[in-house]
Amino acid sequence: MTAGWAAFAKTLSNGSRLIVDFALPREIAVIEFAGEAGETVTALSDVTAIELAGPVHACFSRYPQSICEAILMAQASRYSRLAEHLAGASRRGAVERTAHLLLELACRVHRSATSYPDRFACPLTQAELGDALGLSAVHVSRVLKALRETGLASFRNGVVELHDHAGLIETAGFDRSYIS
Q1: Where does the record place the HTH crp-type domain (predicted)?
Q2: How would you class 80 by CB atoms within 10 Å of its CB: exposed for 0-12, middle for 13-18, buried for 19 or more?
Q3: pTM: predicted TM-score of the whole model, two decimal places
Q4: Nearest C-alpha neighbor of 44 from the set 121, 125, 111, 109
């Protein structure tokens, strides 16, 4: 993706959805469609992407080794993120998992696994955050209010501000090694 944000989601039989990952600018987003049972990909902002047609496993016979290696690294990185998201949804409280996701997005947007920006543009709605965190939009609103009131982070008008990096990292139990 050269610009924009997209969400990989699984729609459940009751019509609800779970956002399992996000594709961000300057990241390789491996999208393979597996019919109705697979993930859907939804643009969350204006998206510009470069398409490499065909199945991923065919890249080795069609593209230079450097492109194939980048695709494999992107898939490994996505697997690591999915493992963290699963751990968050099953073992972290609402505040911790929200703080964790905000820190992950900050690292990915900033394109750094060693530092955090003080602020970054984030086109997500509270409903989309809820779908990614396994929380209702109302619960997300309460959690964001708690993060704001404790001086850790705020999310307003499409901008996330990280006010206290160390406190947010401690709250989330965040170890950014899975991003690098």
Answers
A1: 92-166
A2: middle
A3: 0.86
A4: 125
